[in-house]
Structure formats: structure tokens, C-alpha cells
Amino acid sequence: RATDHIKEQIKLIKKIEKNGFVYRTKTGLVFDTAKFPGYAQFARLNLKKQFSGHRVEVDPEKKKPWDFLLWVTNQPEHIMKWDSPWGVGFPGWHIECTAMSTKYLGQRFDIHTGGKEHVPVHHTNEIAQAFGAFGRQTANYWLHNDWLVIEGEKMAKSTGNMLTAQDLLAKGFNPLALRYLVLTSHYRQGLNFTWKGLMASQKALDNLYEKTIELKKQSSRTKSQPQSQGFKKYQNKFIETLAQDLGVASALALTWPMLKDKDLSSREKYQLLIDFDQVFGLKLWEVRPPAILEAPAAVKKLVKEREWLRKAKQWLAADEVRKEVEGLGWRIEDAPEGPKIRKP
Fold it and tell me: Where is the tRNA synthetases class I catalytic domain (predicted)?
């Protein structure tokens, strides 16, 4: 939490101050963006159209409207405040991210992420204050995601258009089905969450779990062999796909033709699945075969009745029997060798 890192924020502000990038106003300690020549470059800002931030009262003493506060001192009634070299107050909006990221990741790290709305202000100011403290950016790459919407509408507490993991659990979904759904979309394209889409992702995830169990069982029966060229091809293709602007959706799509590739052994397919899952995070290595439960005689009788109806092409009647079986707490999986009775 940012409030657990006030000392680090004060220390970083002192460093920026020492390097000559600040000035004082009645509002507090302000970052002087004129000292950073590249301020507008990251977001391609037209500074003539920029306005002051509105988290605090507009400060007429600021040299530029887009100069931003590092430490706020003019709100004595604010619920959170701490002592500092500049008076009692609290940190500006942007300083916490730079202070916390450099504490745990160092002054130079690979990737900084965030929503696309942070490009023109928050991340621009993070870059500026990092320049003031260290003379350079802290992140090598900045990745900005588009938004998650629900059934085409923006998520918002005010409208009640929100979902939690508990909501998914209450409807019987595996939370990792949501993860699978997210993996199907590129981060810069955003995602429109729909229940239909989640159901499709749940089905795909279940299929992936079943295939993992099957391959693990098959590979345990075979001896280890040298890696084939096909195995190396999929390894390289997976890495190349991820290297294309974190193409996780394309990498996930690669999984299915790999599983159908007849030139790969079961052992190779299983190993590739587990390797891929180090990125996907679907916990394929934890998947276990479902416990074998004997269906009651009444359920078996209904399944046989359904099979007779299907052979007689009485589809509506067969579907009613299926619903009756589900009402008893079982489900029917149709397979080439005949129906299988499962617990949901």
C-alpha cells in the first residue's frame, strides 16, 4: 500500500528537490516540468491545450498549468497527513508509483503497465519525476491496456455494472474461466465481458483440462524420446508469438493445433502444455482425474432411455430426459463409444 511507503516517497522527493526540479507554492511542493525538456514527448501532448489537475484546488502560483504536486500542504483537514521537510501534508498522486516500483524493482526495470487513460497525465508525470530523481526513465517498456467492459457497458460502481470473482463462483464458474477469457484478447484491444463468452471459455478450459489428464496418462506409459523437430517448432513459435507485443491470445490459439498435431507424441504434447502454462497460469499441472462415482440405477436407466430416443430420432423427448438426469445431479457426455455419465 502507498501509505506504507511514505518514507520512501519523502526520500524520493528530497532527491528530486536536490537536483533542482521543484519549487514551492501555497499548495505545496511542485515539480517544475520546464526542467524536463522531453515532458510532452511520451504522450505526444499539445501543452497549449493542457489544464491543471483537479485533485486539489487550482494553484495560481504554478508556473505551468501542467506542473504537478509532489507534496500537498494546504489541506490541514485531510484525513491522511504526515510530517515532512515541507510541512504536514500528503504525497501527490504520482510519486507513490515511482517510489514503490524503484524500491522493489530497482532504478531500471523492464515493464511498466497501466490503463490507457494514464498515458497523458499519470505515466507522463512518472517519467518526469524519474528524470528529476535519476536522470532517466525507470521502465524500458510501457504497456497500456484498453478497458474491460461488461456486455458493452463500462464497469462502474455508480451504475451497478460490476462483477466480482464471488459472482462467478455463485453461478458455478471456475474463476480460471475468466482468466482464459482474458487470455483470448490482446491487452491493447480491451475485452467485452459477456456471459456467453464466459461459458465458451469455461467449456474450452474444461476441454483443456480433460486433454491434459489424457496426455499425462498416455505419456506415463511411454518412454522418453529425444525431442522432435515438431516439438522445437512449437516451442519457437510460442516464444515468437509472445514476442509480438505480448501476443498471448495468439499463443493460446496455438495450443489447439499443437494438440491435434499427429507428428507429436503424447509426451511432447503434455510437456508443451505444461511449458505454455507457465505463461497462461491455468494451473494445468494441478489437474487431476475426476473421482469415479457410480451413477444410481435410476440415472443409468434414464441414460439408456435417452439413447433409445436418440436412435429413434425423438430429439425433443431425448432432451427432456437429459434435463431430468441433470436435475438429479448428473450430466451426460456424448462420446463416439457411447454416453458417459459424469458429476458436474
Answer: 1-200
The mean per-residue pLDDT over the stretch 40-57 comes to: 70
Measured CA to CA in angstroms, residue 109 lies from 22, 39, 205 at distances of 25, 20, 33
Here the cell at position 221 is: 506409459
- The span from the CA of 325 to the CA of 285, in Å, is 32
Nearest residue to 57 (alpha-carbon basis) of 39, 40, 77, 43? 77
Q: Beta strand pairing status for 148-150 and 90-91?
A: unpaired
d(CA 175, CA 198): 10
Cβ-proximal residues to 244 (8 Å cutoff; 6+ apart), any chain = 250
Alpha-carbon distance 32 to 66, whole Å? Answer: 9
Beta partners for 29? 24, 71
CA pair distance 95, 103, nearest whole angstrom: 12
* Helix residue spans in the chain (DSSP H): 6-18, 95-105, 124-134, 165-170, 175-183, 195-219, 229-243, 248-260, 266-280, 297-311, 315-327
Cα–Cα distance, 152 to 203 (Å, whole number): 22
Identify residue 41 by its one-letter amino acid code. Answer: Q
Axis crossing angle, helix 248-260 with helix 266-280, rounded to the nearest 10: 170
Phi, psi of 177 (to 5 degrees): -65, -35
